[in-house]
Amino acid sequence: MSVSLITGTPVPAVVPGAAAARGGAAGASFGDSLKGLLSSVDSSAGDANTAVSEMVTGSGDVHHAMIALQQAEMTLQLTVQIRNKLMQAYQDVMRMSV
């Protein structure tokens, strides 16, 4: 199942165990998923900058600019939370005794 953003850029849905069900090697790796997330953050920030520039010059709509800004902010917040969870998991693994 894929969720589409307002701009039409598809965002793959995250389903636990989906990579294992696809066969692991045939599916995207975890690193590829992170690269995709970072590229979507970059593209949403670029879309927001473009929308604000259009609004300032008068060729764009205020509503479109605000939606693009909120979308970029939400994408960045998601990325930060994923980073926080990864760091917490890494610290938990490092604290384990062998």
Number of helices: 3
Distance between the first and last residues' Cα: 40 Å
SS-based structural class? mainly alpha
Q: Give the topology string: H per helix, E per strand.
A: EEHHH
**Largest sheet strand order:** 1-2
Low-confidence stretches: none
Helix content: 55-70%
Describe this structure in words.
The chain has a domain at 29-95. Helix content is 68%, strand content 6%. The chain has helices at 18-22, 30-57, 62-95; strands at 2-4, 10-12. Strands 1-2 form a two-stranded antiparallel sheet. The longest helix is centred in the last third of the chain and has 34 residues, at 62-95. The chain is elongated. The N and C termini lie far apart (40 Å). The mean pLDDT is 83.
Key words describing this protein structure:
98 residues, mainly alpha, two-stranded antiparallel ribbon, 2 strands
Helix/strand layout:
Elements: E1 2-4, E2 10-12, H1 18-22, H2 30-57, H3 62-95
Antiparallel strand pairs: 1-2
Overview in brief:
This protein has three helices and two strands. With 98 residues, it is mostly helical. It has a two-stranded antiparallel sheet.
